[in-house]
């Protein structure tokens, strides 16, 4: 059988179901106003929540990296671990109040790393059903058994943990901090309490919380006024609010050493560019000082929600920068997304298998850099489509 004979029908099937994916081509820098597929548009689909990806201060740092090599040349355990990586790890750990932090080239890899390294045969990984795909993949790479609980359902979580505790099974509770396709928050206070009550460990993926949530942007733990304990692992990404790329895992001294020894996606890969590490150190300084930007973001979220509610749009209960509009049908989601593009607003349609069947949606993300005028343009475009589709 040829590759073509296997995949041509699958590709055609995907297109017929309105699930075919295409890559929008950006020809200007990542920003709220940018050119995509040759058209000038307002970008409501990036995760650049604080507007740092194209920030002049970071681009200046990029000009000052003459003493660094472009590539790291090797894995961290070989010769790739540069002082810039080391300092960034220390600064992240200090900022977030963990013993140590460990850099990864991407958040996806960090999530492939943690569960297989820490969990063994006989253990349970107890995971929210709406967790990010990379957490699911990480669980499947592990020898532990995967138990999924209904989204944010604390009774279902407790039932699992109680059962495991009775049978002396070590559990790792796994959750997104901010759910990436819904924008709602994990019930971290309850989750932490349950984990502690039943001696379970806790892994929180705060890709959309770090830099944004909490008064100092330290993420969902700070937002809820919680303190991570020594059995907590925090994953954060650098490609979202930080505006650069890569990720980190923060935890206790022993947890991080365990990852360095046993996590294959850490060991068998080239270290991120030292240039990226240096620019990310500067990004961390901006994130720490970003109170005004965080306030602007919260203000933009409130402005959008108020306007969207006035039009009668089907908003989800999200207080984060992720503001989905649930449409259900994939074809409808694409039609809305296309109509918004015609009106100069770039909003991705999110379809299965990224989200559950019949829950296709527009995923609007807001940034501190959006102006009210830009958001107003989006609201007016949404109102026009809404009016048309209901007649
Ligand atoms: C984006 C994201 C990741 C992956 O991070 P990358 O650095 O983009 O690979 C992991 N988890 C969540 C919840 C995310 O939103």
UniProtKB/TrEMBL annotation:
One example of a Gene Ontology biological process annotation: biotin biosynthetic process
Modified residues (N6-(pyridoxal phosphate)lysine): 240
Catalytic activity: 6-carboxyhexanoyl-[ACP] + L-alanine + H(+) = (8S)-8-amino-7-oxononanoate + holo-[ACP] + CO2
PROSITE patterns with a match to the protein in the record: AA_TRANSFER_CLASS_2 (PS00599)
Transmembrane region(s): none
Listed InterPro entries: Aminotrans_II_pyridoxalP_BS, Aminotransferase_I/II_large, AON_synthase_class-II, AONS_Archaea/Proteobacteria, AONS_Proteobacteria, PyrdxlP-dep_Trfase, PyrdxlP-dep_Trfase_major, PyrdxlP-dep_Trfase_small
E.C. no: 2.3.1.47
Cofactor: pyridoxal 5'-phosphate
Keywords: Biotin biosynthesis, Pyridoxal phosphate, Transferase
CDD domains the record matches: KBL_like
Enzyme's top EC category: transferase
Superkingdom as given in the UniProt entry: Bacteria
Binding of pyridoxal 5'-phosphate, residues: 107-108, 180, 208, 237
SUPFAM superfamilies xref list: PLP-dependent transferases (SSF53383)
Residues of the Aminotransferase class I/classII large domain: 41-382
Family membership: Belongs to the class-II pyridoxal-phosphate-dependent aminotransferase family. BioF subfamily.
Quaternary structure and partners: Homodimer.
NCBIfam families according to UniProt: bioF
Name of the protein this chain belongs to: 8-amino-7-oxononanoate synthase
